Task: inverse folding
């Protein structure tokens, strides 16, 4: 069975600090996909990034960066120079089922609430 | 391109009633998934539909059901509501619903059961 763990339930930082959100996953599949979503107070889950299991290249997008390490089953997310607008709940998720008719199902971590104070 | 839309956005019902929630996917997306979000259980997968067929189902009782129409729009129904069904219900759509597809979420329907 697949499982995603976000050990940090809540993080509070002051604006302009860097912050890293941790994500550890478990799966028996050799092919899988990892996602990060952001949920602002409005409730809608906003897609941030997708990574596949055979691409461990780290990625940077503006102030966001992601560190994927299969050896430790981790997919961590860093926000550089945080801003008040980054305040939200962030979810890490895992998807298996790469066969066409297997469908998709996201398994989510418990989420990390990030509060950025001015 | 318009995003995923869900109606209604808010709903208040009493125990024992039934409720139907609606989801319109992004144009061209054929897979629709439903998730329940509660403070205690977090985000949990309910079911997924593709081409009007349910392909996957999460661990929820039979009171939770759904369907998908030929235009990919989907509805979910909860019968005999219980207090514990109070939650944010999120719908997500993706192109064909494989594991590599990205699911895009709607704003959710917040259901309160009194």
Result:
């Amino acid at each position: 069975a697949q499982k995603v763990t976000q050990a940090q339930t809540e993080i509070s930082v002051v604006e302009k600090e860097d912050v890293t959100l941790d994500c550890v996953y478990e799966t028996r599949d050799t092919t899988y996909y990892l996602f990060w979503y952001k949920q602002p107070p409005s409730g809608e889950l906003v897609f941030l990034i997708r990574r596949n299991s055979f691409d461990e290249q780290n990625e940077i997008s503006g102030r966001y960066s992601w560190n994927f390490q299969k050896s430790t089953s981790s997919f961590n997310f860093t926000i550089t120079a945080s801003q008040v607008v980054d305040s939200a709940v962030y979810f890490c998720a895992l998807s298996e089922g790469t066969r066409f008719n297997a469908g998709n199902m996201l398994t989510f971590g418990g989420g990390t609430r990030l509060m950025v104070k001015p | 391109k318009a995003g995923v839309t869900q109606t209604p956005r808010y709903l208040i019902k009493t125990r024992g009633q039934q409720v139907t929630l609606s989801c319109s996917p992004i144009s061209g997306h054929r897979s629709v998934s439903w998730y329940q979000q509660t403070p205690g259980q977090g985000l949990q997968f309910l079911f997924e539909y593709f081409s009007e067929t349910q392909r996957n189902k999460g661990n929820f009782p039979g009171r939770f059901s759904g369907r998908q129409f030929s235009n990919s729009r989907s509805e979910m129904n909860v019968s005999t509501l219980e207090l514990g069904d109070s939650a944010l219900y999120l719908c997500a759509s993706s192109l064909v619903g494989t594991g590599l597809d990205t699911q895009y979420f709607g704003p959710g329907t917040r259901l309160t059961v009194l």
In short: The mean pLDDT of chain B is 94. Chain B touches chain A through 30 residues (CB under 8 Å). The longest strand of chain B covers residues 42-50. The radius of gyration of chain B is 13 Å.
